[in-house]
Amino acid sequence: MKKFQHELGEAVTLISGEAGKVIARAEYLEATPSYYIRYVTAQGELTERWWGAEAIGPNDAAPVAGAGAAGA
Fold first, then answer.
1. Of 11, 26, 45, 49, which is the most exposed, with the fewest CB atoms less than 10 Å away?
2. CB-based burial of residue 34 (10 Å sphere; 0-12 exposed, 13-18 middle, 19+ buried)?
3. Which one, of 48, 41, 43, lies nearest residue 16 by Cα?
4. What pLDDT shows up at residue 58?
């Protein structure tokens, strides 16, 4: 059984419309998996945040400038 929908390093699209990259993921006993996404906000700011699996859309994201940089 596959535990995670998204792989580390995978480009994803958030339900907010922003595109980013999975840089960490967490598995819980009684909750859906969460993903730590590095992405550029609509205001152009590079940020990182935990998102629940339900907040991540289809894997049709374009590469994000700066999203692969080490240490945001």
1. 45
2. middle
3. 41
4. 67
Q: For residue 27, what are the domain limits?
A: 11-55
Q: What is the dihedral of CA 46, 51, 22, 71, to 10 degrees?
A: 40
- pLDDT value, residue 60: 62
In a domain, 36, yes or no: yes
In a domain, 61, yes or no: no
Is 60 part of any domain?
no
**What is the pLDDT, as a whole number, of residue 57?**
82
Reading the block at residue 26, the tokens are 């967490």
Structural domain includes residue 24: yes
Integer Cα distance of 1 and 44 in angstroms? 38
Could you list the mean pLDDT of each consecutive 10-residue stretch along the chain, which spans 72 residues?
A: 85 93 95 95 94 84 49 42
Q: d(Cα 21, Cα 57) in Å, to the nearest integer?
A: 12
